[in-house]
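Format notes (please read before filing issues)

Several people have asked whether sequences and structure tokens are stored in separate files. They are not. Every record keeps both together, in the order shown below: the sequence lines, then the token lines. Line labels are part of the format and must not be stripped during preprocessing.
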Amino acid sequence: MGAAGKDSGCNSMRVGLIDVDGHNFPNIPLMKLSAWHKQQGDTVEWYEPLFSGHMNRVYMSKVFSFTQDYPYFVDADEVVRGGSGYCIELADGREHYQKERDKELPPEVEHIYPDYSIYPELTQDKAFGFLTRGCPRGCEFCHVGCKEGKRSHKVADLSEFWRGQKNIVLCDPNTLACPEHMELLQQLKDSKARVNFNQGLDIRLMNERNIELLKQIKLETIHVAYDRYTDKDIIEAKMKMFKEMTGYNKDRGRVMVYVLCNFDTTIEQDIERIQFCRSLEFIPYPMIYDKEHADPIYKKLQRWCNNFVFWKTPRFEDYDASIRR
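Then the structure lines:
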């Protein structure tokens, strides 16, 4: 998120934080910036337009491009904006990465232990972070490749953001594509913590070796993706192999499959992929591309899959009478 340095001769600063997306998920850059400034002796607090008064610096972080920007005046000598939400633009129904707007944390901030205290309820006994960045896939619907590089690479060891918490939430875009992924999986296994790969694991890169190691990690939920219908053969073969080797299904292990819809597939192809997930007793989670402009049927499809009636109503057309019409 750009500058974290202090003016020379400045003893201490009043620093404000604004999580533009809200407080439903911890903002990792803000936690790192808070930790760094507190180490410098600065005062850090959430910025409140009516109560905070004048600040020396305020950091605004926005992850999602669809989030509305902060609507209030910010009373500060310096306002620093950063995050994907400020460098990704929506145009023609597609996301476009604006490199010139991207800001990275300085190394001394990027590799600091996060200040979890600013999100006490969300981070209770939980650690959040990245072990890897980048992804070689370069999918048109994802900005990771152009933002972080079309190569998955290790950026940290687990100890950088974990100190014995019982739960670990990883935000890596493609852990299994990293050459050191077996080393990193071993670190997760040795932690004995419950692990959540919240961005999913690339099922196409699973093999007997890494599946055996994954089985030894306390996995809260397995997230995998079935994005490309054109990858049908390899994805379905790998999903079958994964189930055979692990025995995971909807009652054991809870495997959730992100299914990209409304991008380059028909509704029939989306339903076909969802039904394949059902056949393995994996839970399909439709990810609607450009939800704002999508046909209303996709919202019904999402509600059908996310509703407990999904397992009792095998056919989508039986879920809602209007669908049959």
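For reference, the curators noted about this record: The chain has a mean pLDDT of 89. The chain is about 25% helix and 20% strand.
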